[in-house]
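[agent] plan:
  1. take the single chain provided in the ticket
  2. run structure prediction with default settings
  3. attach structure tokens to the ticket
  4. add a short note for the reviewer (M.T.)
[agent] executing step 1
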Amino acid sequence: MRLASIFLFCAAVTLHAGPSGTKITGKVTLNGSAPKPKPFDLSKEPACAKMRATQPLFPETVLTGPNNSLRNVVVYISAGAPPSTSVPTTAVVFDQVDCHYATHVLAFRAGQEVKISNSDPLSHNIHPLAKVNREWNKIQPPGTPPFSYAYESEEFIPVKCNIHPWMQGYFAIFKTSFFAVTGDDGRFELPELPSGHYTITAWHELFGTQSQDINVSAGGEAPAVNFTFTAKPETPSTR
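[agent] step 2 finished; step 3 output follows
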């Protein structure tokens, strides 16, 4: 899906920039109970079933932490971002290990190298389902070296394995450098912003997007910018 350019905005929040700018920090939480996940059935791939015999694989669609913090939410400046730094020369890594993706949501810059590796003793077929960028898929037999790819355009891209259907993740690709992905505590931190007006957006693969307008002005300290997504009773536990 494209990075959405139209959102339902909340009331603007005024932040205050220090001498070198303001770091935007905050937390994403879930209102309500996360769906109770069921372990994946790996019986069609005996090697994976054996590998995960004592550690079953569960869907990672909704992962919560302490105080209902929400993991794997991408938070980014969707409007008004200042010019970004040059594209990093260090590659980000997307590994396939123990029959799942080591990183469920991987965010990186357009033009940045993503290095895809297979650490398992069996084959995988990596298949990013791009709509804006070029769609491709490639098989990775065990023991083969990593391969690299770089995307040109901004996009949220679902990623799957054509061999093992439970293996699913996302690439989040940005031209801006102002983005972050929440961890177990639901917290995020964006790079320092100069004075100005911005839109900050939080994206979750199941709950969609929320946005807030923020005004950054000189002097003072910045309050946290928080987001809350609501879990619905009919929310499925699998994709």
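[agent] step 4 note for reviewer: Residues 46-51 form the longest helix (6 residues).
[agent] ticket updated
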